[in-house]
Write a structure and sequence with these properties.
The complex is a heterodimer of chains A (about 140) and B (about 325). By secondary structure, chain A is an alpha+beta fold. Chain A has two domains: about 30 residues; about 90 residues, PH-domain like (Roll), CATH 2.30.29. A four-stranded antiparallel sheet of chain A has the order 1-2-3-4, with helices on both faces. In chain A, strands 5-6-7 form a three-stranded antiparallel sheet, with helices on one face. Chain B has about 325 residues and is an all-alpha fold. Chain B has a domain of about 180 residues. In chain B, helix 4 crosses helix 5 and helix 12 runs antiparallel to helix 13. The longest helix of chain B is centred in the first third of the chain and has 24 residues. Classes of the chains: A alpha+beta (about 140), B mainly alpha (about 325). At the A-B interface, helix 1 and strand 4 of A face helix 1, helix 2 and helix 12 of B. The complex binds zinc ion (2 copies).
Chain lengths: ~140, ~325
């Protein structure tokens, strides 16, 4: 195959991928999973093998549950919920932005947990109570 | 025509792939066909396919050329001079599919090979883009040695490569939920969307089954066949799903995990090697589960012992 043909093929593939992504976006396939509390709790219980008590901390696309050791997270990964148990040792650091907390994690296949909320201070306090973050600065 | 001039069909079938993906999206979106797409997931799968093609071209002149040259050298010791004919291609296609079965089976039971193949299973979706979610460094498994018997039998490496390419093209079309079950005789002989959906399942009863490329007969023969049960819908993906859509992370995450596990302090050499070559899920302290252990916990019989599921009637 000549260089020109290969280049044309590369352009065709790139345009194809772009076109498919655009079509999916326009036809509503980009919406993340909507997480119901009961379902999230059930999935987490399935993972931990024990009951999960207490109300969750609700953020935009993730529900957080306090566990005996660390937290249980049920978050949207595309259209599906993804369940994770995160302990203090899994967290590299916590970065705060307006309306957003990012937990940088040690897992290579799951490098960060982005939590969006209207009340980042409460979220930070909640994470601190679970041992995963420092207390928020006094308001 | 010489065996060397046979085309690499699967690598240059992008117009076919794109056409059928658009058709599947259309059927799902506007015709209510079964199936699901998600923008980031599909884009990642397509990026993985592009990476597979790109790295294939990058290594074409070096690693793949060396492997091909090695097979060509072995070909001089072949038992028979089979040559190039329709019969030769047909026979090679069947035997290459048998080699594919074992390649695929090792890819699920040896972690080093799984690190390569896990990429294909890393989506929670099952659609035509999932077929293109392919690894970038396939040669690293070393499983190309499974082609050696074919070459020693007398099939020219060019024919073997052509058959492998046809095999991959066939498999593209079975990654779909829009097709239910095919006629009984097709389901009995061929790998179908239904059989391969089961292969992509993380439900305990579906784990480690249906390794076939084209002919499901191999699974029936070697005791790894499991029919799709409509009463238990397939949950696609990994026992522990990955949490990233970043193609670079998708491509190497299991290699990184092997490196992290094998370099833990305080392990014996045997344990370090086991982290690379034991079945996925093996751990020195029993803190993780292999798929056999997951199946046992769910009260299911071991896949390779007991009554062979291959004896189950065709659906
Ligand atoms: Zn597989
Ligand atoms: Zn597949």
């Amino acid at each position: 195959m000549s260089g020109i043909t290969l280049l044309a093929y590369a352009f065709f593939v790139a345009a194809g991928i772009g076109g498919i992504a655009y079509l999916l976006h326009r036809t509503g396939h980009g919406r993340p999973a909507v997480l119901e509390e009961a379902e999230a709790r059930r999935l987490l219980q399935e993972r931990t093998g024990g009951p999960v008590a207490g109300p969750p901390f609700v953020t935009e696309a993730a529900l957080l549950f306090a566990l005996e050791d660390g937290i249980g997270v049920v978050r949207a990964q595309g259209r599906f919920p993804l369940v994770r148990v995160i302990g203090k040792e899994d967290v590299r650091d916590v970065q705060a932005r307006a309306r957003r907390l990012t937990l940088r994690l040690r897992g290579f296949d799951d490098p960060r947990l982005v939590l969006r909320t209207d009340d980042p201070e409460s979220l930070r306090d909640w994470l601190a109570a679970a041992g995963l973050a420092e207390e928020a600065e006094p308001r | 025509m010489s065996p060397e001039s046979l085309p690499d069909i699967s690598s240059f079938a992008a117009p076919v792939y794109i056409g059928f993906i658009l058709l599947e999206i259309g059927l799902i979106t506007w015709r209510g066909a079964k199936g699901a797409y998600e923008t980031k997931d599909a884009t990642t799968s397509l990026a993985m396919g592009t990476g597979n093609l790109t790295f294939g071209l990058i290594f074409a002149g070096s690693i793949y050329a060396a492997i091909y040259a090695g097979l060509l050298w072995l070909h001089q010791f072949a038992l028979f001079d089979i040559g190039l004919s329709v019969f030769a291609v047909a026979a090679c296609f069947v035997l290459d599919d048998l080699a594919y079965y074992w390649n695929h089976r090792f890819s699920h039971t040896v972690r080093w090979a799984w690190a390569n193949h896990v990429i294909h299973h890393s989506s929670q979706h099952y659609n035509l883009t999932t077929a293109l979610r392919q690894p970038w460094f396939g040669f690293a498994t070393g499983l190309f040695v499974l082609k050696v018997p074919l070459v020693l039998l007398g099939f020219h490496p060019g024919i073997v490569a052509f058959c492998a390419s046809l095999n991959l093209l066939y498999q593209f079309f079975i990654h779909t939920e829009t097709v239910g079950k095919m006629p009984r005789w097709v389901e009995a002989v061929f790998n179908t969307p239904s059989h391969h959906r089961v292969h992509h399942g993380k439900n305990p009863r579906y784990l480690d089954s249906n390794y076939a490329g084209v002919f499901i007969l191999w699974d029936r023969l070697f005791g790894t066949f499991v029919p799709e049960d409509e009463a238990e819908p397939v949950n696609y993906g990994l026992v522990k799903d990955i949490g990233t859509f970043n193609p670079l992370r998708v491509a190497v995450h299991e290699y990184v995990a092997i490196g992290q596990d094998a370099s833990r302090p305080g392990l014996t050499l045997r344990q370090r090697l086991a982290y690379a070559f034991a079945p996925p899920g093996w751990s020195h302290d029993g803190s993780r589960k292999t798929s056999e252990e997951i199946r046992a916990e769910a009260g299911l019989p071991p896949r390779r012992k007991g009554r062979a599921p291959a004896m189950a009637p065709a659906e």
